[in-house]
Design brief:
With 140 residues, the chain is an alpha+beta fold. It has a single domain, classed as Hotdog Thioesterase (Thiol Ester Dehydrase, Chain A), CATH 3.10.129.10. It is built from 1 helix and 7 strands; from the N terminus they run E-E-E-H-E-E-E-E. Strands 1-2-3-5-6-7-4 form a 7-stranded antiparallel beta sheet, with helices on one face. The longest helix is centred in the middle third of the chain and has 21 residues.
Length: 140
């Protein structure tokens, strides 16, 4: 199946605006990838001061992982599965994200264990690392 990148996130994940935080899958390497997000000022997770809430950083990792998984499902001609974030480990916020930021989320699959997956990710704004963490997702 010929799938050309970049690919809109809406084709890969169940999230829709205003709760869809990621915009498109840019790169894929096996079960790892890079996803882009533009932080809109009207996003419900952006404060009145224009700062993205810290919990949204974890949601960015989860949605980016969902985009990578969705791509893998499409590549294998399977329906895109749903997943639920069930754990956060080693989450570190280094810098805040702001409305207007264009972010790159680098995702690496660490393990796929029956219905649970573990992935780690980094959120970058240009050459600044904003956050990193490890997530566990229940996939069904």
């Amino acid at each position: 199946m010929g799938i050309t990148l970049p690919l809109p996130a809406e084709e890969l994940i169940p999230h829709r605006l205003p709760m869809r935080l990621v915009d498109r899958l840019l790169e894929i390497d096996g079960k790892n990838g890079v996803v882009e997000a533009h932080i809109a000022a009207d996003c419900p997770l952006v404060s009145a001061a224009g700062r993205l809430e810290d919990i949204a950083l974890t949601e960015l990792l989860a949605q980016a992982y969902a985009a990578v998984k969705g791509y893998c499902d499409l590549l294998e001609s399977r329906p895109v599965k749903q997943g639920f974030l069930v754990g956060i480990k080693k989450s570190v916020k280094l810098l805040p994200a702001q409305a207007g930021d264009r972010l790159s989320i680098k995702i690496k699959t660490l393990a796929e264990l029956e219905e649970f997956d573990v992935a780690e990710g980094e959120i970058w704004r240009g050459n600044e690392l904003l956050a990193r963490g490890e997530i566990k997702v229940w996939v069904h």
